[in-house]
Amino acid sequence: MRVTHLHLVDFRSYRDQEVEFGPRVTTLVGRNGQGKTNVVEAVRYLSSLASHRVASDAPLIRAGAERAVVRARVEKSARSLALEVSLNLGKANTARIGRANAKPRDLLGVLRTVVFAPEDLALVKGDPAGRRLFLDDLCVALQPALAGDLSDYDRVLRQRSSMLKSAKHARGDLTMLDIWDEKLAHLGGRILAARLRAVRALAPHVTDAYAAVAPDGGECAVSYATSLADHTSWDDHAPADVLAEVLLARLQEVRPKELDRGVTLAGPHRDDLEVRLGTLPAKGYASHGESWSCALALKLGTYALLTDEGGPDGDPDGEPVLILDDVFAELDSGRRDALATRLASASQVLITAAVASDVPPALIGKVLRVADGRVTSEDEPTDE
Prior knowledge:
Helix content: 25-40%
Shape: globular
Number of helices: 9
CATH class of the largest domain: Mainly Alpha
Radius of gyration: 22 Å
CATH superfamily of the largest domain: RecF/RecN/SMC, N-terminal domain
Distance between the termini: 36 Å
Strand order of the largest sheet: 2-1-4-5-6-7
């Protein structure tokens, strides 16, 4: 799987820009603030309908424009496919696959990407919310239909939490709360089952990747920490319906506390992905270099898992496009070389860097220069 061509219209800093990527590795080189990350962010958006930098779509639309358009040509399973998404200010987004109109969510699973960026250090040092988002992105890459469950769960959670706050001041009939409990448990059971499957599959890849990038750094392991952990009536292989029953029972147990506090205290939104070095949690115990290695192992493990699993619906061409966004300046020479070795056979890698010398020679392929709002190939003439 690879992206051969990208066309941006009013996306971020680009009014109208076309980009041709190389056959395997493409490096975008330019000073900070010139727009090189905007290019790979657009590729990421096509695959996940989200940016790895901001939480909403509004900042992705160029100032003064009403909409932004991202188009790409993707080579997949020996065929070429056109993808397009339009981000419309104040309106619903639209999409196209080939010549046919589609729902934006239909794009999920067509193109898969894994992004490693400086912000990913927060996967180790930051709050659980970032790790939950990482895990949900992985689940959707493995099972695109889960995106609907995640969206519905967030909606039900907001409604249930609002009802808890109202009930705190007027404890009368709680029949409606029982109904929301059942809805939350049903969706939560499906999400928990998907996350547990994903963590089981991801764990050996993370351990293997960490050993490759930090051979003298001990063992990195991941596991799932759930708000249902004190229950013994299930295990991490339990099906979604069993997990839903356990979650429903847990919600009934903690309801008195929820009514006092006005918040939902059990469910996937309270869970975490635990990252450990040896027997200790990486957060708070890992050094800065070890934390970088753990974050890198999470992303390389994700890349390996998606490659091994293949694409949704049995598509054998499931290897994702790997995006390395301005990370080489953060890595020492040993980790840079280990990363380059690890990616020697990758189908497509997109790299951004302030200076080309930051990138290991083995990962220098086609070089694109980004300056003054333009992306040009090194062999193209410039206005200078």
